[in-house]
Design a protein that fits this description.
The chain has about 120 residues and is mostly helical. Helix content is about 75%, strand content about 0%. The termini are far apart.
Length: about 120
């Protein structure tokens, strides 16, 4: 934390003197300008902090979406299922748009091509 505070003070002083940073309105513009001016290499800790700030809302929303999906998938009946099965159900629930693209024929062919499955079932 001490190092970060030191680097932030140096960075702020440096950026205030640099006119290329005068018209920046968002954090993403600041991160882009840091890369353009190579200040991401001069102040790597500051740049990492900016990247974390940019990624945090996306990561938080993804986790919240997963917990909401878990609420729908984990019922009293599914409490007896194994973790792998519950995880697979959750993926199907969360990725509905991708799952719609999969046809029944594709699923049947996949199972038929699996070792040992094709010999047990005749379609």
């Amino acid at each position: 934390m001490r190092d970060l505070r030191h680097y932030l003070c140096l960075y702020i002083a440096d950026v205030r003197e640099d006119n290329r940073f005068s018209n920046i309105n968002t954090i993403s513009e600041l991160a882009q300008k840091m890369v353009e001016t190579k200040k991401d290499q001069c102040y790597p800790m500051v740049y990492k902090l900016l990247k974390l700030v940019l990624v945090l809302p996306v990561a938080t929303a993804t986790v919240e979406r997963c917990f909401l999906g878990m609420k729908f998938m984990k019922t009293s009946l599914s409490n007896r299922m194994g973790d792998a099965h519950l995880s697979n159900r959750l993926i199907c629930y969360l990725e509905k748009k991708e799952l719609i693209k999969v046809t029944n024929d594709a699923v049947v062919h996949r199972f038929m091509n699996m070792e040992g499955i094709g010999r047990r079932f005749d379609l």
